[in-house]
Amino acid sequence: MKLLQAGSPRPLGATSTKRGVNFAVFASHATRVELVLFDPVSGQEQGRYDLPSRSGDVWHGLVPARRAGPGTIYAFCAHGPSQPDRGHRYDPTIALLDPYARGLTLAEPLRARVIEPSFDWGADRPPAVPWRDTFIYELHVKGYTQLHPDVPEAWRGKYLGLTVPSVLAHLKSLGVTAVELMPCQAFLSEQFLLDRGFKNYWGYNSVAWFAPATQYAVADPEREFKSMVRALHSAGIEVLLDVVFNHTAEGNELGPTLSLRGLDNAVYYRLIKQDLRYYENLTGCGNTVNCEHPVVRALIVDCLKYWVQEMHVDGFRFDLGTICARDANGFNENSPFFKAVRSEPSLAFVKLIAEPWDVGLGGYQLGRFPVGWSEWNDRYRDSVRAFWRGDGGKLGELAGRLAGSSDIFHHSGRKPTAGINFISAHDGFTLADLVAYNDRHNEANGEDNADGSSHNLSWNCGVEGPTADAAVTRLRRRQQRNLLATLFLSQGVPMLQAGDEFGRTQQGNNNAYCQDNAISWVDWSLAALHQNLIEFVQLLVALRRRHPELRRETFLKGTSSRAGAKDVTWLNVRGVEMSQTEWLDDGVRTLGVWLGRGNQAAGRLLILLNGSHLDQQFVLPPAATGTDWIVRFDTAFEQPEEIRVVSEHYPIGARSVVLLEA
After folding, report:
1. Quick one: which of 530, 549, 606, 640 could link to 503 by a disulfide (CB 3.0–4.6 Å)?
2. Which CATH class is domain 142-376?
3. Cβ atoms of 213 and 527 closer than 8 Å
4. Which residues are catalytic?
5. Which CATH number fits domain 568-661: 3.40.50.720, 2.60.40.1180, 3.40.50.1820, 1.10.760.10?
């Protein structure tokens, strides 16, 4: 008696029903596809069975319920031409992961696992925070809780670690509205790292896009991931996933055959047309996913739908996002990929964030993603870093970033919220290291300190690395406050890297992708040492929440309305509007940002920024009628104090930010 019945070509993957498990896989150039079943305890192969039916390019079959169900371990073996020069790399001896696998085994070798999808979500609802009110906090699932003293030992570094009340309480106390989780799609470490005794810590080397990474699970990755999402939602916090659809862990032509390569290499990957044996490497990771093909686009959209509908995720950050919109001519603003995402109803209201670059020719595309997308704004990062480092000629650029980067995003009806503003992220220096190191110190990576960016726009404040010099330490703390204040007073969406609120350091390592150790893990003992900085972040977030002027849905223009009011007036140190000459003067390092509200002639908020090494006497404009200016904070002081200003001048210290409110 045949084990497999005909089954159905849809949905793809392994689907458990009352009748059994339906298996369906796309393999357009295959001549035969086998289903391999494994013993769930020993992992030994139990049998191979031809998928009996082919509908178009999908092979499928149904295993009766008495032989398969949730917990069944399986793989595919695909027969077909082994012709690398024609782009085909079939090898029926290799057990392949299902591209639609919802779950994987916890132990290696990784195998696909039929999951039990049921879960008690209770009253779970998406927080649905508007973009204008969003504050993103980027964190690594393992690194965030591995050293947290309140997390049970078995849960440290796991999805469940993020459900612990004190962890959630810290996020809520900061005012975080969304966590952006570094890759949680199943991933592997590259062989070259394993050979050197390292691991891929960050996770940007995915192997199964639908399956939660098993490294962060105690026993059941799917249920534990869902528990994490449910807990974060209960705290009013959205969950954004950093997704990697640009390349896979199969690497270049010398890499392992794990899934897509063995099923349909010529479809799933971009190959060099002059020699199909080789892969286009637009990612720097050996291969590039062929998002130009409709089957690949459908796979990605199906994956996004799954994470939203079944895992209750609220949005995505697309690593090397330009890859998704590349065709034969390069990046395409009208890519079918964008249309496919836009036309999927379940994705209509999720947050979509692009890392708008890749390493290929024409890969830098900041500002060119369509309406409905936001983008990591590295020009914001660089402008703010350069200004506070003390570089000259940066005032105009800084003003543009404070105003929402309209020069980048003001087209096709896009808003300031199209820009994700950040000072630091996983890739680069932490905030504390940005003000403590002039140069990268990546020796621990074993690459002779040649890896990681050398363009950091950092300043060590006079001493490289740790120091006992009290003056340098005070300046570093002030610089951190300056950078944080600028971030939260800017139009756009702020993003903070986990631990930057209490001085997390990587000892100058700006590329800790392979450091699964204390270099990368968040050191929670620093929170007690830097409570003032935590409180400063809390103050900034509270001020931002209280003042809609700081989170507008239109760009600051600086032009007068019909009523004579301005949304912003740019002031020089004398308290009058900046002249064109002053904007172009490399020596001018002080700026006043006077924010209006509605049709009021007098603005309610005044931001003073002094990037020079000299104290300044800033002439204040008149406050609203019958009021005085109140200093909400001055970064020259460790502890913010409200001060009523009765003078027409304010003495702003060197390298300081002041916020005044009328």
Report:
1. 530
2. alpha beta
3. no
4. 319, 355
5. 2.60.40.1180
